[in-house]
TrEMBL record, chains A, B, C, D:
Residue ranges of domain Class II aldolase/adducin N-terminal in the record: 19-198
Keywords in alphabetical order: Metal-binding, Zinc
Family to which this protein belongs: Belongs to the aldolase class II family. AraD/FucA subfamily.
Species of origin: Asanoa hainanensis
Name recorded for this polypeptide: L-ribulose-5-phosphate 4-epimerase
Coiled coil: none
Length: 228, 228, 228, 228
């Protein structure tokens, strides 16, 4: 999919959304979650069978709407001057199979990827983790890039879980959300809890949180936190 | 408390203090102690049964006096355009029960929270820790958000301790001070010593400091350090 | 080699390339890979038996083309106002013996150097590592500075490996590339995977990736990733 | 010593040197070696029995010559508007007993202080450490602030060592140099090698470097590195 010829519409469609998605990538940079050009954010185009995603190997420096490409839900380029991310097929699969998802993030952030390389889920031992993830962050299968394997692994692993994040084995993190911003927040929080639980485990065993307390924290956070 | 309707006075009361408290949040950002919108600083309004506190889920970027809400000591909103922090009840409890406290900070900083997830106090094995904390940093109980449980845990745990910081189990840190600035300093130093003691413990056992030396260091630092 | 008298051509030759190489050093600073003045980037001058390299002990602050010195392939200064890096002999040896290499980076980044101090290769347990390095990052011999020992160690260790990075024992990292930019990318990615694999190993054993999968990932990344 | 009344000369003496020393503190900030107001740099005044040192508890933000106080070699204030660092007695002791030393730095940087809390010297297992320190970084005694104990510990521990850095037990680092800049460089490099050796030790045993090789590296670095 990344090798199809890239076309350019006269003025570039969906410039505002592409600009907003470009800007969201800076949150990944700010928190040290991405290295060089790896990592990407995508967002579904409202009311269309399209999504916008970072170009492949494009730098985070000065990333603007022109670094973001418009694709259809098969991952084919519809508009843009950059070949889309080599992870486009995985994003497209998620959008095709999870209609409530409007944003997807992928990254190889160090602590979460360290858990993924052991194939180990992150246990829910922090109230902030209960708030955002509602339980452990699960591990998906090892899957090669190039077909629907990664997308299938993401969707199958997240089914029936509260967590908006999945650790793909030996690979890194995918997060989902009802917007690109929500998926970016989940990515930022995923690395944060991956780090804190890692640190805690280094010197002993973190204490568990009772399932009823996890449920209570998750319920409250999803319904009370923030501005309504 | 976070769901009461928010009112706005004509020009916004206590703007100067709210602006100063907003600015203090940047110290938490600078030292990497907070992620996304989590964490908050509050300060008692001098001569009134009020305190000011960060709004719930409000971004640290461009945080100004308008992101800070005025509450009474029951945590009810008195003035402001943002619903106050979901931790408002805990801050209010501290102000009601500890009249000498004028500032409170809450955060989920990684190293201190890692200790809290094991339910383990940080031992006083650094002279800088004897200076600021006068002994170990204690651990409070597991407590759910939503009533006075967290506030009670903070106050009960700090009673009879020199430490201005408490690690709430599986949760994070609360610090107190005679001003918001003092509580922020305690928060910054808490993570600093949590990290150094963590690192030291990773490769062996830190050497203890004799209690008489801890007493001597604490006494001197509280009375001699800084500009008089 | 670093003690030969330094000459200055009238206006400074190869200013554009020297300026570009100077600027590339900022990537090492941005990712925290270098401390004080240690570390250096060099690049072969196209169509000439020359390369350009950072001056010895020169600060990264405000580094411009004048901080970069032109040397011949024996490491002798041809043009410049700074004595070249004390690692110049190692870079020169690489350019003499590996004609396809046009860029070299040296650094003492913390995680990769930690592996080197144990004399331990970094195992290929991350898809991002398979992409960029195509296998483990190997360890070269202990070698003293001052003659061709380091250069020989680099060239001998990289022979027959896909990895553009080598960990020199008890010392640090050398990376190669078809340009200075490629070698800098390899350096940045080397520290990134050194850190993630280190973190993963701290809490258990990372799962291996099958050789056929490593081969497939490497092949695809080298041929499909990025803009073509 | 920190409680003597502070006097102010009409225009402030030694403004240029005090400004330069103030600026050097920013290197400690840049490398994350200091927290809040802890840490300090001092420098001997050439041709006088005086030195200049950071004020006690003074912020690093906007630190200028006015935040730096002039003291005599007993640590008594000669000129300045800030009470000097609470570590002034230790700096003064070093200047009185080591006439070749013109700069001193003190800090509680995390990795080096972690070694100090175990009372453990940092073994010389990196070529960069052989270059700068010429061997292990030694540990000095536990000593209370307030008299000459710390200064005596520094001077006695550094006697007969090549290392310009000493880890004071359960406390932090002191470094010396022929200028404040040299002492700052030693401080920056001390934390750098403390971190890398810590990381290396976390996953096994770093390989030793033969004493003859350490000697050779130290000799060369002291005489060849940099611009002559």
């Amino acid at each position: 999919m990344t090798t199809v010829p890239v076309q350019r519409s006269e003025n570039g469609s969906h410039q505002e959304q592409r600009g907003a998605v470009a800007a969201l990538h800076q949150e990944l940079v700010r928190y040290g979650l991405v290295t060089w050009t790896a990592g990407n954010v995508s967002e579904r185009v409202p009311g269309a069978d399209l999504f916008v995603i970072k170009g492949s190997g494009v730098s985070y420096d000065g990333l603007s709407w022109e670094g973001i490409t418009v694709c259809d839900l098969d991952g084919e380029v519809v508009d843009g001057v950059r070949a889309p991310s080599s992870d486009t097929a995985a994003h497209a699969y998620v959008y095709r199979h999870l209609p409530e998802v409007n944003g997807v993030v992928h990254m190889h952030s160090p602590y979460a990827t360290a858990w993924s390389a052991r194939g180990e889920a992150i246990p829910c031992v922090l109230t902030a983790m209960a708030d955002e993830f509602g339980g452990p962050i699960p591990v998906g299968p090892f899957a090669l890039i190039g077909d629907d394997s990664i997308g299938q692994g993401i969707v199958a692993t997240l089914a029936g879980q509260r967590s908006p994040a999945v650790l793909m084995r030996n690979h890194g993190v995918f997060t989902i959300g009802d917007s690109a911003r929500s998926a970016v927040k989940a990515a930022v929080m995923c690395e944060d809890v991956a780090r804190t639980v890692h640190l805690s485990r280094q010197l002993g065993a973190p204490l568990p949180i009772a399932q009823a307390d996890i449920d209570s924290l998750y319920e409250r956070y999803q319904n009370v936190y923030g501005q309504r």
